[in-house]
Inverse folding.
């Protein structure tokens, strides 16, 4: 009889728990302004990856859909004024001076991990991938680290929630 009672309680708890979780807004929902886009070098020093004053926004909705845009402010303009007639150097600066992607975001609070489930990206190799980032949330400041690059450097993004 105890087993039946436990099973009944479990059967009642699971749907109620799922409904409560679905009703909660996504913890990171909102608009976030980029504060820093840096690299931590193997020796521990921190250098700017997108210039001293990068520009960017991350938007996350209550269902966990997201969009990230990071830009180096000092990107050169295309001399011809037309994106289709850019020089190889202009195209390179445009690609290396930006990072954009969107998709779904999952949070694992116990392990302090964000998982970006990337649907589309400026760097096509990321499309259809899942990328994990260790994160910290302190008040309205969110920071996360990208896994180390082959050279040992670790990209770090810092965001501030906008009111």
């Amino acid at each position: 009889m105890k087993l039946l009672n436990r099973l009944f309680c479990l059967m009642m708890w699971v749907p109620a728990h799922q409904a409560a979780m679905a009703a909660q807004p996504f913890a990171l929902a909102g608009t976030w302004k980029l504060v820093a886009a840096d690299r931590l070098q193997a020796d521990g020093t921190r250098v700017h990856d997108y210039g001293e004053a990068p520009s960017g926004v991350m938007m996350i909705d209550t269902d966990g859909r997201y969009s990230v845009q990071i830009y180096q402010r000092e990107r050169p303009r295309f001399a011809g004024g037309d994106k289709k007639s850019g020089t190889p150097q202009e195209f390179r600066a445009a690609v290396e001076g930006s990072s954009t992607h969107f998709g779904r975001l999952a949070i694992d609070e116990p392990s302090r991990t964000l998982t970006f489930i990337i649907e589309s990206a400026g760097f096509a190799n990321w499309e259809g991938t899942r990328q994990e980032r260790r994160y910290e949330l302190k008040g309205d400041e969110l920071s996360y680290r990208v896994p180390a690059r082959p050279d040992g450097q670790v990209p770090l993004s810092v965001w501030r929630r906008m009111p």
In short: The radius of gyration is 20 Å. Residues 26-161 form a domain with the Lipocalin fold (CATH 2.40.128.280).
